[in-house]
Amino acid sequence: METQKRKFFKTLVTAPSPSGFEQPAQEVYRKFVTPFADEVKTDVHGNVIAYKKGTGTLRLMFSGHADEIGLMINYIDDNGFIRFQPIGGIDAGLLPGLRVNIYHNGKKVRGVLGKKPIHLLKPEDRKHAAKIKDLWIDIGAKDKKAALRRVSIGDPITFDLGMDTLKGNIVSTKATDNKVGVYVVGAILKELADEKIETNIYSVSSVQEEIGLRGATTSAYGIDPHVGIAIDVTHATDYPGIDKNLHGDIKLNDGPVIAVGANINPKVFELLKKAGKDVKVKYQIEAAPRGTGTDANAIQTTRSGVAAGLVSVPNRYMHTPSEVISLKDLDETVKLLAQFARMLKDETDFIPRV
Questions:
Q1: What is the pLDDT of residue 6?
Q2: Do 260 and 182 share a domain, yes or no?
Q3: Which of 44, 73, 294, 321 minimizes the number of CB atoms within 10 Å of its CB?
Q4: Predicted pLDDT of residue 128
Q5: How far apart, in whole angstroms, are the C-alpha atoms of residue 187 and residue 4?
Q6: Which residues of the chain have pLDDT under 70?
Q7: Cis before residue 74, ω within 30 degrees of 0?
Q8: Cα separation values, 122 from 119, 126, 135, 226, Å
């Protein structure tokens, strides 16, 4: 991965952006895409839409969601300990002992997730994973009044983890889901910056996917695309304990993952595979017999219907503080989708036929 794009990705994953509080990450996206877009705008929900004008009339939407899972303060007790609720899908059993950042009026407050130590637990309680109600955040405050001078009810919270290189292309971050999508939709514009293509590209960094696909729903309605591709992560199945009979065979470093199923337009699926072959990108196929639970769901059902597709990056340990991906897979996804954009013409037919 080239230096500029690696810096973009690292800055994205370290920017705090729980659902509803995405603007720090959105500002990173705005700055990156502005040199490569004809127009960049932010809508009332906070979606950032970067537009590259084509020579034709077809509208292509790429969507990656900027929001990450996190926490929110909902109560502070008399002793200054902070209680919280999850933003998005959180595995409470992973939280004890983690260091977190609380964001209050533009400032970062450090905290530690506390839990009663194992020595003091009753034997029967040791058998069960921690629950949200059993946890608190300690910011070193002596009482509630002192805590309220530094934080307040409703402040968002993220895990305090950056990006670490494990080996070669393999990296770990707190917010791979789904800063990879934001990276890809931005990097596509950089890839095509000096090219004239027929399709009009709308690269969207959407919001609030983790709590209901909201940003993709509203931005797709506004753009009214003919075709839309969601870029997200999917579960890698190349680590212990995963049943491939149920979840398929998806590997890191084996390339982007193209979904097929009810959520996916058949013509789009075939064009995505052809794009991969054209630019010699190895890809993987994922069966998706139902809705995918991604922005592709929202895009597909916009207005009178959109030809939708989903391309994902394999991700280990999803919705944990240490997700793991391959940067090679990330850039291969950009390469495949840039070629997909080049292939589209005004006369491209997305109507399913036998």
A1: 94
A2: yes
A3: 44
A4: 81
A5: 10
A6: none
A7: no
A8: 8, 7, 16, 59
Same domain, 279 and 330: yes
How far, in Å, CA of 73 to CA of 156, rounded? 7
**Rg from Cα positions in the chain:** 21
Neighbour order of strands in the sheet with 284-288: 39-42, 48-52, 200-206, 59-65, 227-235, 307-315, 257-261, 284-288
Q: What does the pLDDT read at residue 66?
A: 97
**Cβ neighbours around 102 below 10 Å, total:** 24
| Range 28-31, long-range pairs (CB < 8 A, 24+ positions) | 29/66, 29/182, 29/186, 29/205
Structural domain tally of the chain?
Answer: 2
How much is the pLDDT for 116?
84
Which are the catalytic amino acids?
209
269 within some domain: yes
* Length of the chain in terms of residues written: 354
Closest CA to 62 of 346, 345, 343, 334: 334
